[in-house]
Specification:
FAD/NAD(P)-binding domain; D-Amino Acid Oxidase, Chain A, domain 2; 3 domains; 8-stranded mixed beta sheet; 15 helices; 35% helix; binds flavin-adenine dinucleotide
């Protein structure tokens, strides 16, 4: 994937069938769906692919055990089907993972056990592993740090796991291979109209400052929690449809949870579930679900949210986690569809919605990572009707996603940081093959170090920045600007006690 080639296609194409705004799971999935049906599609991302919520998930490909408890059986079953196709179509970038739900009362053992049996039954022929009842000894064997006092046993069930940012890159790569044009650091700025209907878009390249005007049969708004901004851009009278809900994760060393299996804490103090999931040599613990009355590219965790996660994890494990043990805190905003009747975002519907405005703008919001393919299918089908394009059926059900490029053995393999496996070659490949343009693109979403260990990311930032500079031929001034911006950003991912220190 070369950005310069994508830019050239933008400059030389007079008209697109569809232009998609947003380079997260939904936008890139939509671009892939449209391209694989043979439509001429452009997808633009303001910052970097998966900069928004799509890099900040719990990284689970799941039906959603919690929604089952809420009685939303149809939605869970749909997601379980999608889970199967997600795993099947991206085998190099996904895996199945077992979860253990520890229980401390006999009644709960039966309740959760039969619930999770139902969870597996709902997946029908798309089951990825049988649910089993476990004795207390088996739970202890699987999770050495589990609190054993009054432990009655547990339940083991299966779901999928992935690297959300890497799958976004796979979607972009596969979409390009099917004829789509996909570009990052390109912002939608305003619409153009013909007879009150949107017929194109003005966008700005945020790297060069250049503006580009494109014409399109239909424009699709897949900007997650920013969907209302785009709808306001089209119609000043627009009433917001998104109710953002904030979820945080903390990332800690494996020594605090030394298991290859994930843990599901079935009932937190606010009645939700909490996961501890091994990922990339660390452990992700989360998440929360709090109504957010703001939208931001870099949402931040409050100390109460961090305390909530720590307290609930500590209730179930013997290693006492405290804020100083946290290696990174990352926060995402769920683009939930607004409902005026309900107060708590935890109750808002997680299904997706596709809306068509009077101007013909198609907006897709809600849903979850696991169901991106279904969201994309519904969106493209609706968009073809809006644009009056000939209908062609969806082709993504069995479409293999292209895995990341393999590093050339001739590239330098020296490690960037002593505690992590990433190398100079990874940085070079990210820039040459995966459209990484900035220090943040590399450290946050190509090698994920900012999400795994913010302090380590800060420590190797100068070296990584020099490698990018050499690859892209930037001046020294660029390095200074990139480093300053990255240090400011990294403070938001550092655990609280370190946040206010000076980084140099
Ligand atoms: C804490 C948390 C945990 C989650 N865990 C899971 C999970 O484990 N499994 C699961 O299935 N789902 C999970 N989800 C849900 C899932 O992450 C989201 O539903 C999904 O990522 C939303 O993707 P999106 O593409 O709609 O939005 P986004 O990823 O936010 O993408 C929208 C993009 O639009 C871009 N954009 C905005 N304005 C413009 C503009 N003017 N021009 C161009 N681009 C623009 C943004 O930069 C952004 O990258 C989780 C969500 C949260 C918050």
């Amino acid at each position: 994937m070369k950005r310069s080639q994508q830019l050239e296609k933008i400059k030389t194409t007079t008209r697109w069938d569809m232009v998609v705004i947003g380079g997260g799971a939904t936008g890139l999935g939509t671009a892939l769906d449209a391209a694989s049906r043979g439509y001429k599609v452009l997808c633009i991302e303001k910052y970097d692919f998966s900069k928004g919520t799509s890099s900040r998930s719990t990284k689970l490909i799941h039906g959603g055990v919690r929604y089952l408890e809420q009685g939303n059986i149809a939605m869970v079953r749909d997601a379980l089907f999608e889970r199967w196709f997600f795993l099947k179509n991206a085998p190099q970038e996904t895996r199945t993972i077992s979860f253990i739900l520890p229980v401390y009362s006999w009644w709960r053992w039966l309740y959760y056990g039969f619930g999770l049996k139902l969870y597996d039954t709902l997946s029908g022929k798309y089951s990825i592993g049988k649910t089993e009842f476990l004795s207390a000894a088996k739970v202890k064997e699987a999770i050495p740090e589990i609190k054993t006092e009054k432990l009655k046993g547990g339940i083991r069930y299966w779901d999928g796991q992935f690297d959300d940012s890497r799958i976004c890159l796979s979607l972009a790569r596969t979409a390009i291979s099917k004829g789509a044009t996909v570009i990052n650091h390109m912002s939608a700025e305003s619409f153009t109209y013909c007879d009150h209907k949107i017929d194109g878009l003005v966008m700005q390249d945020l790297l060069s400052g250049e503006h580009h005007k494109v014409k399109a049969g239909v424009v699709i708004n897949a900007t997650g929690v920013f969907a209302d901004y785009i709808m306001h851009m089209d119609n000043k009278e627009h009433h917001n449809i998104v109710a953002p809900s904030q979820g945080i994760h903390i990332v800690v060393d494996k020594k605090f949870y030394n298991s290859d299996e994930a843990m599901l804490i079935p009932r937190t103090s606010d009645g939700r579930v909490l996961f501890a999931v091994p990922w990339n040599g660390c452990v992700i613990i989360g998440t929360t679900d709090e109504k957010a009355d703001y939208t931001d590219e870099e949402p931040q965790a409050g100390s109460d949210e961090i305390k909530f996660v720590l307290d609930n994890f500590n209730k179930y494990t013997s290693r006492h986690l405290s804020p100083v043990d946290i290696k990174s805190v990352y926060v995402g905003l769920r683009p939930l569809v607004r409902s005026n009747k309900l107060l708590h975002t935890a109750d808002l519907i997680r299904d997706h919605t596709v809306l068509v405005s009077k101007s013909g703008l198609v907006t897709v919001t809600g849903g979850k990572w696991t169901t991106y393919r279904k969201m994309a299918r519904d969106t493209v089908s609706k968009a073809t009707r809006v644009a009056g394009l000939p209908f062609r059926r969806c082709r993504t059900r069995n479409l293999q996603l292209q895995a990341g490029p393999v590093a050339d053995p001739g590239l330098p393999a020296d490690i960037l940081h002593k505690d992590h496996p990433f190398t100079t070659a990874d940085v070079i490949m990210a820039v040459r093959e995966d459209m990484a343009c900035t220090l943040e693109d590399v450290l946050a979403r190509r090698i994920r170090l900012l999400f795994l260990d913010a302090e380590a990311a800060v420590q190797c930032a100068p070296g990584v920045c020099r490698i990018i500079q050499q690859e892209l031929g930037h001046e020294d001034e660029w390095v200074a600007t990139q480093l300053n911006a990255f240090y400011e950003l990294a403070k938001k991912y550092l655990p609280l006690p370190m946040q206010n220190r000076e980084i140099s």
